[in-house]
Each structure stands twice: as C-alpha cells, then as structure tokens.
Design goal:
The chain has helices at 19-29, 44-51, 65-79, 102-130, 141-145, 153-173, 199-207, 217-228, and strands at residues 7-11, 33-38, 56-59, 84-87, 133-138, 178-185, 239-242. The chain is an alpha/beta fold and 249 residues long. The chain has a single domain (7-240), classed as NAD(P)-binding Rossmann-like Domain (Rossmann fold), CATH 3.40.50.720. Strands 3-2-1-4-5-6-7 form a seven-stranded parallel β-sheet, sandwiched between helices. Helix 1 (19-29) crosses helix 8 (217-228), helix 3 packs parallel to helix 4 (102-130) and helix 4 (102-130) packs parallel to helix 6. The model has no long low-confidence stretch (mean pLDDT 97). It binds nicotinamide-adenine-dinucleotide. Nicotinamide-adenine-dinucleotide (NAD) is lined by residues 11-12, 14-15, 18-20, 38-39, 42, 61-63, 88-92, 111-112, 138, 140, 185, 187-188, 190-193.
Length: 249
C-alpha cells in the first residue's frame, strides 16, 4: 500500500483506456482515494464509480481557472486534503507548422500547458499548508525529440512548456515540501492514437523500439504511483522517460 490514505486528483482521467484512468486505478489499488476530473461528456462520476466506493468524479475543464478552483475545493470538502495532483489532461493534433491556425495553437496549448498551470495553482495553497505534496505533469517524448509520432509542432511546444513549468514549480515549491516531476511517455496505446495508426504501422514502430512494443496505459500508471509515493521522496524537477527506449539520451 504505497499510497495509503493519500488523496489524488487526476485531470483528464475518465477515459477507461487512458493514462489518467490507469493512474487512478493503480493509485486506488495502493490505498489512495482518487478524484477523477474530466469534461462532462467523458462522465467522470461514472469513471470514479468504476474504480470502487470512496472515490469522486467531478466535471472540470482544466482550461478554465474557476472550474479548476471549484474542483480543488470540492475535493478538499470531500476528503479534507490533496496529496497528489496528476496533470494528465491533454489533446493532440497532427498538423504541420504552416497549417497550424491561431485557434489550433490555443486549443492544444491551453489543455496541456494552461491546464497544468491552473490546476497546479488550484492545489498548491493546500499543499503548502500541509507542507507536503506531489505534482506529476504528463509531458511527452514529443517534447524531447521534436515530435512524437502523431502530434504537430504545437503539441511538442505545449509538452516542452509543461517540462519547463514543472521544473520551475519544483524549484519554487521544494522548500514547502512539495515535489513536482514530469513523465515523458513514448507511444502508448490509448484513445488518443485510436484509428490513427494501422496495425502494420504500429508493428513498424515497435520494431524501432528497444523494448519492442508500444507502451500500455499501466506503464505510465506505475510511473505515476512511483512519483506520487514516498519511494521518490528525493526526486523533484525530474523527467521520467517511459518510452521503451524509443528515446535514450
Ligand atoms: P486520452 O485522449 O485518452 O485522454 C485525455 C483526456 O483528457 C480525455 O479523457 C479528455 O476528455 C480529457 N480532456 C481533454 N480536454 C480536457 C479539458 N479541457 N479539461 C479536462 N479534461 C480534458 O489520451 P491519453 O493518451 O490517455 O493522454 C493522456 C495524456 O498523456 C495527455 O496529456 C497526452 O498528451 C499524454 N501523452 C499521451 C501519449 C500516448 O501515446 N497516448 C504519449 C505522450 C503523452
């Protein structure tokens, strides 16, 4: 039970095939009470109920500051504290630089980058009072190598921005006992890539990966449990690569 009695808030976690839901499920299996945040159409309350009793699902749009603040307040009202935040919500778009409109740029950056800042701002005062907290930000291998497989340059920029924001927050809030770390997933088989790659293309990509397969949602969930738990007490400002060796640097 690595997370006994901890309260974990996870954004964009209602999709049962997604990284956020895998993190929520694994955290719950380690004793955490989880708060699943997502857009209304993703039905976060139903997702929380799937995990079992004693968890909470709330509608929250991470691009809206008031919505983030309200979600944090509701989590605190229900559980009295917030120990863990996973900034997981993100959207992607396959587009070339010259095709990216202002609206595309705003949309893609707002969910990953603005959302990471707003939701972190919503939980940080509570974590400061507790003098304890772990914030985990989901970036991407795309930030590190200038493109993953599917996302455009604006997605790479959003995810690189997440790394910078997480590192800066790690510096600022370390003295308060709050750790902030990032995970850079490689290509993981979730809904975000659904219908976008043929089986043949996936097999071709797997051949280029040292561990010879695409990632699974639980691969990221496990990394989240590690960074949330006391196993990583002396880690802050790090980027944990979970990519099967797709990028070794
Ligand atoms: P996913 O599409 O299953 O999950 C994304 C979730 O975010 C969805 O549930 C969606 O409803 C939610 N969301 C979208 N906009 C939101 C908003 N404004 N407010 C709140 N929630 C919102 O995809 P996933 O693969 O599970 O992605 C999770 C994270 O991992 C994303 O940040 C993604 O960029 C990142 N990532 C994924 C991969 C991959 O290969 N799957 C690789 C690297 C990084």
């Amino acid at each position: 039970m690595l997370l006994k009695d901890k309260v974990a808030v996870i954004t964009g976690a209602a999709g049962i095939n997604g990284l956020g839901f895998a993190a929520a499920r694994l955290m719950a299996s380690h004793g955490a009470r989880v708060v699943i945040l997502d857009l209304a159409q993703a039905e976060p309350a139903a997702a929380a109920a799937r995990i079992g009793d004693g968890h909470l699902g709330l509608v929250a749009n991470v691009t809206d500051k008031a919505s983030c603040d309200a979600a944090a307040a509701a989590a605190i009202q229900q559980f009295g504290r917030i120990d863990i935040l996973v900034n997981n919500a993100g959207i992607t778009q396959a587009a070339k630089t010259l095709e990216i409109s202002g609206a595309d740029y705003d949309r893609i950056l707002d969910v990953s980058l603005r959302g990471t800042m707003y939701m972190s701002q919503a939980v940080l005062p509570t974590m400061q009072q507790q003098r304890n907290g772990s914030i985990i930000c989901i970036s991407s291998v795309s930030a590190q190598r200038g493109g993953g497989i599917l996302g455009g340059p604006h997605y790479s920029a959003a995810k690189a921005g997440v790394l910078g924001l997480a590192r800066a927050m790690a510096r600022e809030f370390g003295p308060d006992g709050i750790r902030v770390n990032s995970i850079a997933p490689g290509l993981i088989g979730t809904d975000i890539i659904k219908g976008k790659l043929t089986e043949e293309k996936k097999a071709d990509i797997a051949e280029t990966i040292p561990l010879a397969r695409l990632g699974r949602a639980d691969d990221i969930g496990g990394a989240c449990v590690f960074l949330a738990s006391d196993l990583s007490l002396y880690c802050t400002g790090i980027t944990l690569d979970v990519n099967g060796g797709m990028l070794i640097h």
